[in-house]
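We examine the record.

___
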Amino acid sequence: MAEPGVTQDGLPAGVGKRVRNWLDRARRGKLATIAKSLSRFFTSDRGRFRHYAYVDGRPIGRAEATSYYVAAVAELATLDTDARARLPAEVHDAFTKSIEEISEHVGRRPRTLDTIASWRRVLESTPEQKAELAVHAYARFRAITDCPSYDSFDWRAKHMANEMFTTLARPKLPFSQAQLERLVALMADERPRYNSTGDGPERAILRALERMRLAEDLSPAIEQHVRSIIAQRKKLAEQNPYYQINKDILAFRQRLEALLTDRAAPFTLPESPWSAQVEVEMAREPAELRARLHAILRHASTGRGAQPTRTWLKQAEIVRHGNDNPRVAELLCAWVERLRPARPTGPMWLPDAEQATIAVHEELGRRLLWMAALLGCDAAVLKAETFSGSRILLSGAVTALSMMDAKGVPALLNLRRKVKGAERAMVDKAIAAIAERQGVPVSTLEETTVADHGLSAGGIVELPAGAGVARIALEGTSATLAWISASGIRKRSPPKAANDVEKEQIAAAKARTKAIADALKAHAARLEELYLTDHAWPVDVWRKTYVDQPLLAHFARGLIWAFTSQGERRLGILKGDRPTGVDGGPLDVSAGAEVRLWHPFFSVMEITHAWRRRINELEITQPFKQAWREIYVVTDAEQLTDTYSNRFASHILHQSQFRALGRARGWDVPAQGNWDGGGSNPTRIIPGGDLTAEFVVAVAAAANALPNTTLPLIVTDRVQFFSLRAGSVSLGEVPPLILSEIFRDLDLFTSVASIGRDPAWADGGPDRPFADYWRRAASSELLGSARTRREALAEILPMLSIADKCSLDDRHLIVRGKLHAYRIHLGSGNIIMVPDNRYLCIVAAHGSENGRVRLPFEGDGLLSLILSKAFMLAEDDKITDRGINSQLRRRS
């Protein structure tokens, strides 16, 4: 039974009938669709009362919701009548029809409004008519979003109204002062809003106000409305801390406040601790330089967007030229560096008041970096990597480096190695833009813009350091710094600085060493990636790029090159600046030869082994595995599966380590967690072609994990290749070298990030999750990189001082100590003591890799670790570590 006076619809008696009668009398045109909505509204959920909206925190029922909706419909009808009087009939009719047509696309609305015929007619109207239509569209948007129950009747309406207004307002429409006054008056309306579509319309109105103010002063009525909006936003900030710390909201309010400033008044920075410090530093400068800095700050405070416009750059020419450009650029970069926002310290971290205020200046900081680039700032002074974590400032730094053209490329390459995800994509886009402007491929640009850092042909540079010198030398993929006293004695530590000049010299030497080391790592990774593109150089270009350039020549002397002329291929390695063969004899290379980085995939094993011996004879450490590079081919099982491989499936990996390895190798590795979908799979886009590799992974089961969190372990599945044109690609159709290199990456991921390499995993006992997998992985058959590691050890062992205590079986390095014999697994590094087969847990300390033996290649940390353990266990009676000793002397 319904309550007295209430129908089974949950409405007060008679209300439903009155609303139906009202709609019957008012039904015409677009109101027919409203009648249908109301009809569905009344006939659904019959007999059950529901709350359909909230007003001031109070739930309202159907009757009150209907009254709000009817009022909104009446307001829309009034707006429609007013617009018909202001616009030509055909334009108004096209606009009205476009509303109806867009509304019909329930759940299948087109991506753009341009596909609607009536909307295309609207866009053909004059700019003045569009301006009037935009005012009408925003009035409709406000009428809909001011209604608390409109969504219950038509959930599409506010999204449609938002998109229609923002599309109309996107061009620079010729709004009159009266039209802007109507728009700002609607913005200033203090009625509660029920909008979940963003603040795009309000930002469009603000841009229109800013354009108007550049041409003329705003009317007093507009300024009054702007003051009202500012007061409302300040009141919200007092009531809710979110409005005090959100930098977008603060920046919007700051732009509103800028509309009210006197255009003839001298420029002042918004109040903040950062602004106060900048003002103090400018006050110390001479009057002429101070005036120029003020002019630069004023110009940098103008404009919007992530890229400088032609107009902004043209206006910058006024303040760009001067005799003190280096000093000014250095000041600007130092100011922006202080704008770095505090990094989060936990999941509930919130910035303090000072950080929130400073965040408002990030847009200004972005344009100050642009100005520094226009003033000829050195890329090293910019310190782009310091802005990682701040989207706006990093964007400004990357754009500034892009504005330097070739001079900014080395810094961009170094930055690309240090950032990830969207930040790395931003850097890649900037490098590609420079290459396009110069009309060269990205790979050529990267090679031809390498800085020499003052290095001599022998890879050494000496810098003043007090009374002595700082000597920087290239070694492997790093640079060493030595301090030489005035008497020529080599010192381990820098001299004591006697004054500020010597302090700067010492700091400059350390910074140069770091820059060279960073460049070496970046170019080692770049060179290795060339295997995916089959890059070739004319011999004269190769010689100029890799032999005559001191930094790259250091790499070139450690690598094997393939010289092809008239169909004949010959392999050689540089000795000095001349290629030599595997026998050490000179190699004659014709002027028309092509040069490629040699890959053992295209040579028989006898040639590969001969080059390995040659590398060891020359005592060369290759910057990455080349002569010892793993080779992978399609197996019989993979020919049966055809489009995928299970070779690297069913491994349990540490997700954080896997993601770090993947990003370093150029893979896109999204996080995997216990949210809907879990996360997309890691992918690697093959450069220069229409091919993508995908590694299917999933989260490993984790009990008691918090919802929507990244989980620590993942389990691997198949690997497959895709083409945008052809879809899934058969493994047999993938170029063999590309397949080998992709599989080599996956072997790296599944061996290095596997829990089987975690020596502490066994401490959890047999009940620890995935204990069976750990036992299998800790002693599994050697595949891929592990097999190559065994081959390298077989060549290295005879040269070691502990050679008589070591031997190899098919899976282990066997070390005979005085207390026990030990088997070190070459795939995981785990140790078993024999004859009682007890596990020996040795957790490697950071930086504990082997440093006693020259390895023939860089990049295999596990090989270094195994050798380090072997040296220690060969003298197991001298081990002093209590944890290890307790295991060695424990009786089985």
Notes: The first helix runs from residue 15 to 26.
